[in-house]
Specification:
Elements lengths: L1 H24 L11 E5 L5 H10 L6 H10 L8 E5 L5 H10 L8 E5 L5 H9 L6 H8 L2 H8 L25 E5 L6 H18 L1 H6 L4 H13 L5 H16 L7 H7 L9 H4 L23 H8 L8 E4 L5 E4 L2 H10 L4 H5 L1
Antiparallel strand pairs: 1-2, 3-4, 5-6
């Protein structure tokens, strides 16, 4: 009995020691070191190969214990990506994050396409966080072969964007939002499709209403982009401004919108020069009757809904004062009085 008890005791001690050794081996390399360590997990990586990748990054305390855990841990859906870990994490924590593709640990670089951004500004926003220059990005977005491939993929992109008068085919088609880049080697195409996918979601939600409206999808986005640039800070203003424009379209008037002239010269300003206002560009809505060739900026949901639910009104004019208040008028005389009553000062124009 003494021998049996001794053997049993030795086995228990050995087992306990093995468990302690194993648990220690898969523990944190340094629980006080929380400095970020970037780890690239290539597509097709298995649990064993990931152990070596993590070891090279100094994230494995004991290679033998890590290999055991990699085998018995049930990591059967390991996801390729670029992750951010640290030495204070245990090996199972790291493997679980890779196995689930935990967004918390995925390396993220973000870019923002703001409401009312022209395509040139969208390209600049991308260029600031990617290896590509704004010129390269615009060149890709203006590539007719590439655009045609997108037309075949997205229902809302039509041959209207290939019109000879269009300045940039994808102008107005990238949805304004904040985007996270999780790919360690992103392409212009993949980044573009992120924004097009969001536009797909926004437009698909409103597809039936758009189809019932008097506008094609291209005309709809064109009008909504002008409404955006005119300053639709509230749903009420977006709907009212849209109502004014619809009235002018029905009366075969020009839209009379200066923001379209700003688009021609790739700038935002209130004090446009006479020579600019007199531009013969088909985008000059002060001279062209009806809609211009295409959108002039990114289009947020508020502008989309403003056009779809435009306010029924007799107004034919509106004027944005220096404090952001929009004044509406039924006649040109009333409009002129609004302008005179709420003038822009030199200081306002400089801000």
């Amino acid at each position: 009995m003494k021998k049996i008890l001794l053997v049993f005791l030795i086995l228990v001690l050995a087992l306990t020691g093995g468990i302690i050794y194993y648990l220690t081996g898969i523990g944190a390399v340094d629980s006080s070191d929380t400095d970020d360590i970037t780890v690239d997990i290539p597509a097709g990586s298995g649990a064993s190969s990931i152990v070596y990748i993590l070891e090279e990054k100094g994230l494995v305390k004991n290679e033998i214990c890590a290999k055991i855990n990699a085998r018995i841990g049930g990591y059967d859906s390991l996801q390729a990506n670029t992750y951010i870990f640290n030495k204070a994490m245990t090996f199972p924590e790291i493997m679980k994050a890779i196995n689930t593709g935990d967004f918390k640990y995925i390396s993220k670089t973000s870019f923002q396409l703001k409401e009312g951004y022209r395509l040139s500004q969208c390209a600049q926003a991308l260029a600031e966080v990617t290896p590509f220059s704004a010129k390269e990005i615009i060149a890709k977005w203006d590539d007719k072969t590439y655009v045609k491939s997108l037309i075949g993929k997205y229902w809302f992109l039509t041959n209207d964007v290939l019109n000879k008068d269009i300045m940039h085919p994808l102008e107005g088609y990238l949805y304004p939002d904040t985007y996270f880049i999780t790919d360690s080697d992103p392409s212009i195409e993949s980044l573009t499709e992120m924004a097009l996918d969001e536009m797909d979601a926004a437009l698909s939600e409103r597809k039936s209403k758009i189809e019932k409206s008097e506008f094609s999808i291209h005309q709809f986005l064109t009008l909504a982009s002008i409404v955006t640039k005119e300053g639709c800070a509230t749903e009420k203003d977006a709907a009212h401004i849209s109502g004014v424009f619809v009235n002018r379209l029905k009366k075969h008037m020009s839209l009379g919108s200066d923001v379209t002239v700003c688009y021609i010269f790739d700038e935002d300003r209130v004090d446009l020069k006479v020579s600019q206002l007199d531009s013969d560009s088909p985008y000059n809505a002060r001279k062209v009757e009806g809609l211009i060739p295409g959108p002039i900026s990114t289009v947020p949901a508020i502008a989309m809904d403003g056009v779809l639910n435009y306010q029924k009104t007799d107004d034919l004019f509106f004027y944005a004062g220096p404090d952001g208040t929009i004044y509406y008028a039924k006649t040109n005389e009333e409009h002129s009085r609004n302008v005179e009553a709420h003038p822009w000062s030199e200081e306002d124009l400089e801000q």
